[in-house]
Amino acid sequence: MDRPLAITDDHDLLDDLLRIAAAAGTELNVAHVPAHARPYWAHAPMVVVGSDTADALAATGPPSRSRVMLVTRTPGDPDTWRKCVAVGAQAVLELPSAERRLVDEFADVVEPATKDGLVLCVVGGRGGAGASVLAASLALTASRRELRTLLVDADPLGGGIDLLLGQEETEGARWADLVARAGRVSFTALQAALPSVSGLALLSFHRGEAGAIPAEAMRSVLDAGQRGFDLVVVDLPRRPDPAAVEALGRAATTLVVVTADVRGVLAAAQVLTGLREHTVDIRAAVRSGALADDVVSTSLAVPCAGSLPDQPRLTSVLNRGDIPPLGPRTPLGRFCGAFLDSLVGAER
Any idea where the Rv3660c-like CheY-like N-terminal domain is (predicted)? Predict the structure, then answer.
């Protein structure tokens, strides 16, 4: 694919542009004088013109084209807009304040949105309800159905969803690596960096102390996930933090795993109070117990997404670090298959 074109002889500005392009996951073709830009002008997906070369470029009479940006490191220069008009630019970007926008502009042209992936959030109605197991099982089932799937562990105190899948020793990026790298994330780079299991991309925490995920980091990951994956499954903490709020705002559906007993329903009702402020479509996945599914659903005033009977020997399987059994005869397999049929079929 053709690279964006930068036209500037300002070495400080060029250093900024190269750094910003790298943050967007691309490289630039560079012309230090307008004459050197001529072979690239028509084919570059985007052109950034330094204010230092704008007048010289305008003098060559370049053909009109879209996606031309004038970039300057001198905010408030009264001559900037004249130069913008002269080169036919669509916008003026003043650095450093416009760096984020320029990252997004570069990323949009080198990695256009190819998908509009669904976000599915899963949260426990109380501790130990099995939300992480369900989130992992849904993601694995989707991956086995050849849906490009990303599983995101968003609960810093959950113990690590990679551990649940026996992948804690697998090399690859974790949250701390992404938090340290601010800005937009390329979905191709994200997929390449993350550990995977059975074709499923997995984002979890490092062992040890796990800090809260900044909302900006979650936003970048979900942006990349929705551009490059069919489904993004997010395992959330019971009390929404800023990162969880970011995920809930994008969720096509949020599943609350409820144990069918009085304590489980009361705990889930408290969780729902926090969730309803940030998302609309909430459904209950009911773990079998003393109460009927319809009683649980009615008590919580949310639709029932299905029943989850206890699965024999599931705990011992997970403690061995094995992947949850998800065959069509298992309770987890039946629930995940039926739910994904309804979710993907309703959205596609």
Answer: 7-114
